[in-house]
Amino acid sequence: MKKRQTYPKPEYLFYAAASFMLIALLLNLYNIHQYINSLVQAKQLVIAQQLVKVIIAYLEVTFPYAFYAMSLFGFGYITTHFKKSDEFSAEKHDSIKKTSHPIEDDDEDIDAFLLENRK
């Protein structure tokens, strides 16, 4: 008997990728901090005079990872939300199916209704 191969749910993959992006963001933030700190110690950079360049350096390094992390988290959230919505609609559809009444053969009632409303 073959064992069925199971795959992880897509939302968990999105959340895992988002957490990896957050870890990469933190590591790059640390690296750019060390780089700027080394420039300051070597007296090649004065932060007060080049504050805009320092801010841009931080943003250039960290913004892509922050964007990817937020996007992946959003995809995971949307996937989870739509799965719950699909489960709810499936349950609702099943309950409607169970409570619907079978169609009865009421030809006489239909004929009487049509005769009454004939113009």
What does this structure look like?
The protein has 119 residues and is mostly helical. The protein contains 3 helices and no strands. It is elongated and about 100 Å long.
Radius of gyration based on Cα positions: 31 Å
Binned strand content: under 5%
Q: Fraction of residues in helices?
A: over 70%
Low-confidence stretches: none
H/E series: HHH
Oligomer: single chain
Annotation field: number of helices: 3
The major sheet is characterized as: none
**Count of distinct strands:** 0
By secondary-structure content and strand pairing, the structural class works out as: mainly alpha
Query: Kindly, what is the distance between the CA atoms of the first and last residues, rounded to a whole number of angstroms?
Result: 69 Å
Shape: elongated
Mean pLDDT over all positions: 82
Describe the structure in brief.
This protein has helices spanning 10-41, 51-99, 107-116. The chain is mostly helical and 119 residues long. The mean pLDDT is 82.
